[in-house]
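Colleagues,

For the teaching module next term, I've prepared a clean inverse folding example: a structure given as tokens, and then the sequence designed for it. I'd like students to try predicting residues themselves before seeing the answer, so please don't circulate the second half yet.
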């Protein structure tokens, strides 16, 4: 499970999904280009986060502890 927390793994997966989207666009340009652009940007962002050794922040919406909780605890030295 720890492997999925790695930014480079996530960047690779988003990059793979983006590649599939871009390849599908070789047949005809459709609204799918928005998905390809979004996935490409997400992949690039995860590469930058990995290069800067940043940890992934979670959100309560996706079932995590919440970004605001992590920021508040770190800001007050409780982490």
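(Answer key — instructors only)
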């Amino acid at each position: 499970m720890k492997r999925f927390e790695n930014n480079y793994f996530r960047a690779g997966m988003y990059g793979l999904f983006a590649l599939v989207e871009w390849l599908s666009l070789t047949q005809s340009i459709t609204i799918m280009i928005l998905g390809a652009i979004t996935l490409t940007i997400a992949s690039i962002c995860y590469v930058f986060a990995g290069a800067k050794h940043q940890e992934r922040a979670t959100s309560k919406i996706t079932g995590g502890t919440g970004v605001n909780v992590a920021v508040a605890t770190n800001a007050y030295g409780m982490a």
